[in-house]
Each structure stands twice: as C-alpha cells, then as structure tokens.
C-alpha cells in the first residue's frame, strides 16, 4: 500500500467522530511491537514482508538488541472502510429522517478486505460477505442494489512497554488514550503485567479490546488439536474476565460502603427524631446488585480478537458469522452469538442446538467446526505437514490470488503469511475492531472527564464552569485544556524546521530542467558574442558545493543536541502555534492560583509519527500531539490551561508505576566535565517519567531507577545522548531499614557500637546512659553543658499497629502535610502539640483527623496498657514527619511551646518560668527524633517500627544562674545540644533491644529453578495446565538481584525472563552483632563461626560506603605464621 500523504492525516484531526486514540498494553514479549508493525504496514510505512521483524517503533538501539520496548512510541494511522448501504435506504434517509438510514444499514465491510473472498476450507463456492449482505437484503424483502459509503478514520496509536521496570510509561500512555488493545499470549496466558495494565485501564476508564495473540504457538509448538485449543482459549478468557470482575467488585463494595456510611448518619438523625423505619434495617443485609455484563470479554460481543501477529492474521467471530449466515439460513446477529460457546450444528436438521440438544452425540462446537478447523487446516498443509498440492487446493477454495512464485517458495512461513494476509489480514481486523468497539474522543470524554475531575465522587455533579463543559463535550471552540503526560527528548536535527526538505520526483525533474535551460541559454549567448551576463558552469558548481558545505556545517552543529517536546492530549479547545497558555504543575492547588503556575508561548506543534515529527499549525480537541516550548516550565508532567481563564484544574493523576528502588551515585571520569553531567541529569530527569535525580547532602549526584534494566537504559542515555561524556558509576545502592525485636541483645557488641556512635565526646557514656531503674530501652540523657536532662524510652511498635502505619502512609502524609505545612507557613509555633489533637479548621482536615483517631484508638488499646490512649499524645511521625516511627508524649502535660506562657497548663513542671522552659526544647526534641529515625545506629539507614516515649524532661538549676537574659542567651546552645543528645539517646535505646536489618524485597514471577541460591523464598508454584511452563512466584532480596536476570537467561538458554516488582521490606532474622559465645554454639560452629553473619556483612558494606567506622580485622583466625626466608 502506498504511503499516506501527511495532508490527509492532518485533515482528519478535525473530525472528532472519526478519531480514535488507542494504546497497546501487555506483558513483556506478548507481541505488542510485532502487532504494531503489521498495522504500520497497512499504511505503507514499512514493507508488509518486514512486519514483525523490523520493530519500527523500537527506535532505540538497546530496544532492538534486547527485543523489548523501553519507551512509549506514538504514530498516526489512516484507515478507510466502506459501509454497504442499500440505495433505497439512502434515498429514504434524504427524504425522511436520519434514523431510517441507520435501521437499513447493513454489515460494515472494510475496503479491500479479504473477507469478500473468505470461505470454508472444507467446501468451495460459498458466498462472499458481499453476496451475504445482498442475499440478506433480498431475504428481508429489499431487492435494491447495495451502495458503498466510504468513511475515513485517524487512529492515534501508542505502543507501550511491557517490562515491569517501565510501568511509568504505561501510565503515561493510558492517560492519553480512550481505548486499549490488551494483548495476552495464547501459551503463557495472564501474567503479572497483564493484571497491572488491566488495572491501569480500569482506573483511567479506558475501554479495552482483548487480543489473544500467538495462537500459532498452540499449533506448531504445543501441537494442540482444535478442541484442545478451544478449551485453552476459553480458560484464558475466564482468567481475564476474573481479573475484570475483581476490579468491578472492589468498586461496588467501595460504593456500597459509602452509601451505608451516609445511611448510618441519616439513621442516627432519625433516631434522635424517633422516625427510624423498618426499611432502613433491611438495607444493610445485601449489596445492591449492578449490571456488570459490559465489562467482560466475549467473542460474541466483538471485543475479542484471535491473532498471530508474527504470521500476519487475525479474526473476530463476526467475520465468520457474515460468511456462514447465508449457508445456514440464519440471521447474522443470531449466528454471531452462537459462534462461540456451547452451541453445536445438528448435521441432520442443519440447525444450531445447545448443550441439552446433544443427547449424547459427540458433536464439535460451532467455534471449532466453522472457525478453528479452517485455521488448523491451513497450518497443517503449509507448515506442519507441507503438501503443495493440498496448499493449492486450499488457496483455490478460499478464492485467493497467490502468485506462483510465492507458492514455489521454500520458506513455508512466507507461504503461510502470504495466504493469511489475503484471507484474514491482521491490520483490517484490528483497525475495524478499534473503529467499532472503541469510543471517539467526544464519546469517551463524557465518561472519563467527570471521573477525572471528581475522582472521589460516586455521582459527579453536573458541569457548571465553561472549562468543565468544554472538556466533557470535547468542544474545539472552547478554551484550551490539555494534559502533558511526559517530556520526550528528541535530537534537534529531527525537528521539521531543521530537516532538509525532501524533494518529490516531479520537483527534482523541474529543478534539473531549469538548470539545463540556463546552461543552454548561456552557451548560446557565448557563441553569438552577445553582451550581457554569461552563466559560468564552474561558478554554478562552486555555488552548489558551497551551499552543500553550509548545510553540512549546520547539520554538524545540531548533531548531538537534544530538544524536549511535551507528549500531550488536548481535551478542549484548539491549540495554535504562538498561543499563550498557563502551565499548571503537579502541585498546583486552585486555592493558591499563583503558586506552581507559569505562562508559556507555544513554540511548535507536532504530529508524532514514530521516529519522525510532522509540523502542525494547530491541533483541535480530542487529539494526541507533541508541543514545543515547555522546557523549563514542565518537569515531567503538567496541565496546559487557557490563559484567558482564571484559576485552573490540576489533571495530574497518580499512576501505578513501581517505586524506584535501585540507586547509584554518578561522577564524571574527568572532573572538569561536572557541568555536563549536571546538565545531562537535568535532561534525563525530564525525559524519563520513572527516574528520580537527587543531590545528596554529601554532594553526590544520585539517580533512582525502577530496576536493573531501567538503570542500564538511563546510563546509556546519559553517556550517548544527554551528557555525552564518560561517567563512572558506583555499585548499586540498595536501601535497607533498621528495626528491633524483643529478643536477647548482644550486650558487649551493642555497647561497643554505642561508644563508636558517640566517639569524639569525652563524657559520652556518662551523659547518655541506660537507666538503672527504668524498663528495657530507657535512656537518661544530659546535655554536655548540664542544662537539660531528659528520659526517653524506646519500644518496638506492635506488629498490627506497624502494619497500619505502613499501609496508611499516604493518608498520614496528606494529613500531616496539610496541617503541619500550613501551620509552619503561617508562623504558628506548633512544636510539642500532639499531631492528632491539634485544633484544625472544620472541614476536610477535621474529618481526616477524626478518621485517623478512630482507626488508631483500637490499635493502641490492643497493644497493651502502656499504649492505651496514647494515640492522642503522638508528637510526631518520623522520619521526615510521615514515617512509621512515633514520638509519644509521656510527660503528663502539654508540651507545646506556648502552653505554659498562655496559662493553659499550670501544672506543667518547668524549672525556669522566667528563663528557659521545657517547652522551649520541644522543637529540638522533635528534630533529634527525626534525625535518629532517618539514620539508625547500625548503618545509618532509616528506622522502621520504633516508638520513643518522652518520659521526663527538666531544666537543671545551673542554667538559671545567669538570670533571665543570661539564661535565654544560652538557649541557642542548649537547643543544639538537646538535638544531638536526643539523637544519641534514641539510637542507644534502639540498641538495647535486639536490632535487625530489613531487606527490600522483590516479588519475582518466573519459570525457572535458580531462586534458592540467591536467598530467595518460594511463595507459590504451579504447572500451567496444557503448557510446558512451570510458574514460580517468589520473594527475592533486591540486594541479591543484580545479575539475576542474566543468570536466569543463561540457565534457561534465554527461554525465561524474571519480572521483578518491589514488594515490601522484610526483617532479616539475624542479629548483626551475633558471635558464637555459648558452649553449644562454640561446639557446633567453633571460634571461627563458619556460618556467615549475612546481616553483619550487609551492615558493614553500607557503613563502609557511608564512611562510618567498620570494625574489621586485616588478618582473621590466623592458624599459621608465615616466615620469609632470608637471603
């Protein structure tokens, strides 16, 4: 097919009803890019023979090398179909009403599709779909000839990665699209990323179409019969529908919970009024039933495609229904519903019967008899048992026109692809399903926009604002609202303004004709001796060479330079080049319209065509496009808003990407190139939605990535594109957590570690020491200047309460940031006030505070007597004010800075009422707590699950000797010393318990046998029925995962690849200070301790990296002295 002109694609952008925005989602290696190649071949972008081999949308070298997609790529496709409509219906529609034409409309058939020649391989001469349509019209009493009406569509396609390391790219793709093609491997079935992409599509209200790909593997590899394949495909459908059912159930239960909560409030009000009815009692007995039929996949609904992308074929059951409806004398709609399921063809009556009508007869289901048998027959005669004579008969029975040279090919796969590309072309089937099943932007935004604008509303309110109406109606004449999902870095020489204009053949011929005429005219003038300006051939050649040299110099100047363009979707209005827009950042809040908001001028607009860009003057609502001029205004994603409208709405939503867990420190090999590294890191941070770039307190430049493959891609981008320098990379830095358990501690080693942590302080052990009379973990601390003394007790948080703090981290963070952040900004001194009892404004904050207190109260009561009621005394969460560690006020009085001076707590025991008070130390106590929990005593990693009870604090008498002014002047010194003393007290109290390291764990989904040797833990294993695959689900420490994928591929000859997703932190049940000291341990292990202390090894590695003291012997357990022989 010839390439589609750019003007045609640009013209179709204005017709919203004929635009489709879709993405391809799937697990890794399930065939997304191969399917994309076949769709691109239908537009003449690549050769149909190279479809599945060239991987056109994988434009990176490492993508081609690894065979996986790492970045989302977009391209716009043209699709034309012809709707066959009776001529009489067209005339009636013109004379009467539009509905009459729609009722008379017949089957939709794509232009040039081979369905017109499709036939049963078992019998020849069956009617084509065109004949079927005509016959159907005749049977219904209409004998008028059918006419075709051409319709053109623009398909904006986004190919997304399937590897778990690039889940962030899936989020960006799904937010821009209205529909999705979800691919599932027919052999491997539903995998981990299949769950993830289906959940992302559900969350974004993206309508999916299921594509069961690689069906050829069932025939050639597993050698299934059609019946076995039919059963296997049904199981895959059940698995996918089960996943969709869980999403629907979650929504129903959440909605039902909200309704019950509202009814409960109403009932409480009715009880007060004494009007409670009996119907209110019965309403809690059941969940309201809702119709969920629309969310499931079934071939009869047309939302399931069976395909083999590598062989270039695909079909839906309605294609075969159109063929067999005439033969069986059935209506096409009825046959479509019977063509998949427990329906059979009675050979005697030629009627379709159900399962009950079998009466013991062994009949094949219609799906096998009419569909799968035909596909299996083609594979059998072409690939499995090659037979040229039978192949020619099959081609003839299908009415296909295959060239003799193609039939003589010795490559059976090439012959197979040639046959199927004419019989069941993949591109036609898929694009037709996209047009019929997936909504246009105008239809989709009516469903998606209310949920996006009001995510927490069960029933979104009616739109009132102009911008809201424009978004819901996809109004091109309204103000501009667009969403930038990510920033894409492209070479400057790819931009349309910098590319050499490619001349067409006609333009080149015209240029040559003009130059020849000039040369002939100059020659004639020279012969005749005419006076005038003569054209010198040498001068013409020199000018041309000079022009080419200038072009080469300009190209060399652009080489290696990158530009950032925004990958965007416009929901309302029409954006134009030169237009001024507001950019709303991810943290934009309509309550503060001037913050996180800037104004930009649109520099350029692009239609993204894979590796190329097409320049545009304007883009109407409903389209996906690229936009230039956002560099410096949009970091990763943002919202574009019409400058004429006041305020704005933040459209940035949270995706499902995995948290970046692997970090490395970077530095240039040549220190003079540090500026280039910094600039490269800035570009990487903008161009990659999943990476995080940090500058640590030590000055190190650190990047955080989702996994090993993601890290390798980021390093390749830095070295080859963004920084273009040699970069040295540290060993991967994996986070740990520090916690403690109630077990006997290694006292000697703990004391040694405590001394080491307090080194440099002459009287450290005297000032901060274990309480002789207090419970375990109680520490008495005095500041070095002897002005402040306090007692703090460290206790491990009970498991249930710790789990709550971890599971509700986002809820706690939102509350603390809203409350504490605003208080800090307003200048109110809130240090020492209990977090959950501080007075807040009525409204959402008050509701959040009440909800947290209600949920924490039973957990604290269950933890024991010393915890009961202490949820109201939480002074701070840590680290960073939101972590799973608690600082609890156990003083018995208010610890807030203003409490004593305001007379709120007259019983507050403060020593110097006119000088330094204990309330003045509140902020220092909290700061010391935050520092201690941010870096524990083992290896400076954050603590997890520790509570610190502040039991006593007093200002010693000698701090007041200098009087009021002198006492207050010492406050600054005392505050700093309280911070360090509190930090050391928390750490020493931590070591009084039995410390443990917590490892970051990957959940690993793989088919292999190499888990245990890397300290992994098998969770679940099963044999996938009907396949040779043995599926294993396991947990693997992140610190042991580097090189794991390569190890797996080597041991399985490349047949398996693990999917590693960060799961949680897990306690390594081994004391890092353990040494054999009992008689039994010495007898079993000896003095050498042959069993390695893994926790100590991890701890020492981290301490050494951070520059902390490591107690390490150069020679350990020496048995023999080595003596050198003297000369």
TrEMBL record:
<feature type="compositionally biased region" description="Polar residues">
    <location>
        <begin position="110"/>
        <end position="126"/>
    </location>
</feature>
<dbReference type="InterPro" id="IPR041095">
    <property type="entry name" value="EFG_II"/>
</dbReference>
<dbReference type="GO" id="GO:0042256">
    <property type="term" value="P:cytosolic ribosome assembly"/>
</dbReference>
<dbReference type="InterPro" id="IPR009000">
    <property type="entry name" value="Transl_B-barrel_sf"/>
</dbReference>
<dbReference type="InterPro" id="IPR027417">
    <property type="entry name" value="P-loop_NTPase"/>
</dbReference>
<feature type="domain" description="Tr-type G">
    <location>
        <begin position="17"/>
        <end position="348"/>
    </location>
</feature>
<keyword id="KW-0378">Hydrolase</keyword>
<dbReference type="GO" id="GO:0043022">
    <property type="term" value="F:ribosome binding"/>
</dbReference>
<keyword id="KW-0690">Ribosome biogenesis</keyword>
<dbReference type="Pfam" id="PF00679">
    <property type="entry name" value="EFG_C"/>
</dbReference>
<dbReference type="GO" id="GO:0003924">
    <property type="term" value="F:GTPase activity"/>
</dbReference>
<dbReference type="Pfam" id="PF14492">
    <property type="entry name" value="EFG_III"/>
</dbReference>
<protein>
    <recommendedName>
        <fullName>Elongation factor-like 1</fullName>
    </recommendedName>
</protein>
<keyword id="KW-0342">GTP-binding</keyword>
<keyword id="KW-0547">Nucleotide-binding</keyword>
<feature type="region of interest" description="Disordered">
    <location>
        <begin position="104"/>
        <end position="145"/>
    </location>
</feature>
<dbReference type="GO" id="GO:0005829">
    <property type="term" value="C:cytosol"/>
</dbReference>
<dbReference type="InterPro" id="IPR014721">
    <property type="entry name" value="Ribsml_uS5_D2-typ_fold_subgr"/>
</dbReference>
<dbReference type="GO" id="GO:1990904">
    <property type="term" value="C:ribonucleoprotein complex"/>
</dbReference>
<dbReference type="Pfam" id="PF25118">
    <property type="entry name" value="EFL1"/>
</dbReference>
<dbReference type="InterPro" id="IPR020568">
    <property type="entry name" value="Ribosomal_Su5_D2-typ_SF"/>
</dbReference>
<dbReference type="InterPro" id="IPR000640">
    <property type="entry name" value="EFG_V-like"/>
</dbReference>
<dbReference type="GO" id="GO:0005525">
    <property type="term" value="F:GTP binding"/>
</dbReference>
<dbReference type="Pfam" id="PF00009">
    <property type="entry name" value="GTP_EFTU"/>
</dbReference>
<dbReference type="InterPro" id="IPR000795">
    <property type="entry name" value="T_Tr_GTP-bd_dom"/>
</dbReference>
<feature type="compositionally biased region" description="Low complexity">
    <location>
        <begin position="127"/>
        <end position="145"/>
    </location>
</feature>
<dbReference type="InterPro" id="IPR035647">
    <property type="entry name" value="EFG_III/V"/>
</dbReference>
<dbReference type="InterPro" id="IPR056752">
    <property type="entry name" value="EFL1"/>
</dbReference>
């Amino acid at each position: 097919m010839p390439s589609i002109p750019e003007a045609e694609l640009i013209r179709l952008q204005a017709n919203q009803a004929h635009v489709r925005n879709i993405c391809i989602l799937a697990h890794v290696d399930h065939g997304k890019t191969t399917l994309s190649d076949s769709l691109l071949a239908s537009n003449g972008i690549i050769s149909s023979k190279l479809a599945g081999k060239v991987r056109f949308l994988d434009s990176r070298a490492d993508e081609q090398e690894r065979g996986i997609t790492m970045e989302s790529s977009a391209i716009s496709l043209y699709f034309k179909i012809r709707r066959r409509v009776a001529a009489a219906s067209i005339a009636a529609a013109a004379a009467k009403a539009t509905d009459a034409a729609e009722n008379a409309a017949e089957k939709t058939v794509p232009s040039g599709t081979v369905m017109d020649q499709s036939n049963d391989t078992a019998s020849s001469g069956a009617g084509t779909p065109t004949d079927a349509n005509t016959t159907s019209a005749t049977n219904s009493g209409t004998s008028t000839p059918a006419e075709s009406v051409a319709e053109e569509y623009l398909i904006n396609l986004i190919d997304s990665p399937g590897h778990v390391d690039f889940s962030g790219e899936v989020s960006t793709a799904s937010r821009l699209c209205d529909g999705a093609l979800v691919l599932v491997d027919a052999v491997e079935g539903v995998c981990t990323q299949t769950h993830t992409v289906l959940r992302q599509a559900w969350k974004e209200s993206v309508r999916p179409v299921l594509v069961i790909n690689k069906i050829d593997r069932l025939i050639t590899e597993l050698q299934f019969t059609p019946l076995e394949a039919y059963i296997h495909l049904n199981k895959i459908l059940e698995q996918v529908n089960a996943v969709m059912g869980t999403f629907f159930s979650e929504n129903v239960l959440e909605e039902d919970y909200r309704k019950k909560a509202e009814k409960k409030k109403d009932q409480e009000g009715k009880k007060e009024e004494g009007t409670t009815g009996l119907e209110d009692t019965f309403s809690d007995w059941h969940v309201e039933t809702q119709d969920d039929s629309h969310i499931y996949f079934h071939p009869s609904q047309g939302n399931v495609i069976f395909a083999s992308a590598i062989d270039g074929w695909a079909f839906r059951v309605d294609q075969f229904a159109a063929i067999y409806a005439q033969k069986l004398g059935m209506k096409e709609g009825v046959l479509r519903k019977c063509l998949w399921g427990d329906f059979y063809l009675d050979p005697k009556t030629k009627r379709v019967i159900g399962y009950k009508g079998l009466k013991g007869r062994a009949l094949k289901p219609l799906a096998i008899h009419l569909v799968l048998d035909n596909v299996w027959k083609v594979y059998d005669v072409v690939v499995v048992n090659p037979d040229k004579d039978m192949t020619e008969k099959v081609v003839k029975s299908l009415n296909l026109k295959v060239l003799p040279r193609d039939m003589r090919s010795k490559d059976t796969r090439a012959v197979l692809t040639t046959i199927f590309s004419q019989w069941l072309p993949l591109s036609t089937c898929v694009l037709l399903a996209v047009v019929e099943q997936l909504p246009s932007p105008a239809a989709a935004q009516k469903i998606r926009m209310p949920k996006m604008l009001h995510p927490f509303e069960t029933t979104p309110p009616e739109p009132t604002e102009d911008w809201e109406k424009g978004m819901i109606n996809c109004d091109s004449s309204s103000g501009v609202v667009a969403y930038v999902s990510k920033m894409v870095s492209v070479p400057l020489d790819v931009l349309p303004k910098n590319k050499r204009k490619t001349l067409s053949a006609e333009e080149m011929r015209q240029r040559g004709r003009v130059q020849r005429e000039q040369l002939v005219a100059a020659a004639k003038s020279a012969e005749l001796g005419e006076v005038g300006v003569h054209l010198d051939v040498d001068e013409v050649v020199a000018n041309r060479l000079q022009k080419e040299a200038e072009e080469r110099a300009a190209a060399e100047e652009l080489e290696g330079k990158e530009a950032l363009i925004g990958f965007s979707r416009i929901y309302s209005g029409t954006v134009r080049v030169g237009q001024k827009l507001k950019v709303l950042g991810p943290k934009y809040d309509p309550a503060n319209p001037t913050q996180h908001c800037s104004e930009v001028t649109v520099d350029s607009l692009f239609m993204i065509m894979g590796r190329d860009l097409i320049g545009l003057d304007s883009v109407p609502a409903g389209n996906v496009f690229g936009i230039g001029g956002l560099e410096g205004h949009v970091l990763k994603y943002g919202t574009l808003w019409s400058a004429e409208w006041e305020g704005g709405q933040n459209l940035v939503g949270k995706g499902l990407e995995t948290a970046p867990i692997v970090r490395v420190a970077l530095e240039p090999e040549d220190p003079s190139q540090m500026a280039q590294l910094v600039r490269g890191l800035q570009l990487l941070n903008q161009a990659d939605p999943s990476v995080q770039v940090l500058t640590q307190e030590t000055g190190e430049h650190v990047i955080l990535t989702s996994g090993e493959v993601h890290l390798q891609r980021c390093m390749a981008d830095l070295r080859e594109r963004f920084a273009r320098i040699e970069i040295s990379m540290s060993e991967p830095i994996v986070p740990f957590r520090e916690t403690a358990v109630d077990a006997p501690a290694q006292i000697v080693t703990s004391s040694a570690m405590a001394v080491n942590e307090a080194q440099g302080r002459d009287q450290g052990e005297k000032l901060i020491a274990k309480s002789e009379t207090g419970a375990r973990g109680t520490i008495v601390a005095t500041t070095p200047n002897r002005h402040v003394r306090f007692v703090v007790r460290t206790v491990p948080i009970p498991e249930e309460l710790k789990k709550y703090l971890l599971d509700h981290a986002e809820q706690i963070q939102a509350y603390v940031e809203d409350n504490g952040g605003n208080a800090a900004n307003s200048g109110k001194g809130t240090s020492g006030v209990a977090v959950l009892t501080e007075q807040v404004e009525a409204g959402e904050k008050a509701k959040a505070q009440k909800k947290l207190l209600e949920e924490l109260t039973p957990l604290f009561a269950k933890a024991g007597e010393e915890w009961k009621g202490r949820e109201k005394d939480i002074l701070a969460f840590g680290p960073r004010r939101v972590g799973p560690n608690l600082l609890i006020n156990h003083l018995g009085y208010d610890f807030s800075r203003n409490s004593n001076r305001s007379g709120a707590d007259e019983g507050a025991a403060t020593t110097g009422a006119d000088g330094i008070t204990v309330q003045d130390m509140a902020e220092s106590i909290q700061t010391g707590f935050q520092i201690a929990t941010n870096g524990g005593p083992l290896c400076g990693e954050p603590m997890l699950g520790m509570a610190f009870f502040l039991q006593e604090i007093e200002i010693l008498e000698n701090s007041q000797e200098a009087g009021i002014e002198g006492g207050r002047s010492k406050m600054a010194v005392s505050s700093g010393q309280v911070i360090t003393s509190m930090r050391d007290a928390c750490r020493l109290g931590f070591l009084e318990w039995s410390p443990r390291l917590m490892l970051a764990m990957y959940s690993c989904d793989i088919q292999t046998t190499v888990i245990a040797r890397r300290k992994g833990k098998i969770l679940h294993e099963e044999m996938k029925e009907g396949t040779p695959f043995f599926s294993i689900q396991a947990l693997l420490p992140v610190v042991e995962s580097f090189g794991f994928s390569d190890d797996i591929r080597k041991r399985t000859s490349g047949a398996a690849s693990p999917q590693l997703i960060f799961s949680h932190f897990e306690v390594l049940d081994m004391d890092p200070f353990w040494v054999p000291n009992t008689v039994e341990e010495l007898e079993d292990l000896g003095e050498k301790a042959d069993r390695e202390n893994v926790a100590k090894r991890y701890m020492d590695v981290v301490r050494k990296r951070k520059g902390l003291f490591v107690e390490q012997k150069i020679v350990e357990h020496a048995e023999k002295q080595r003596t050198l022989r003297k000369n």
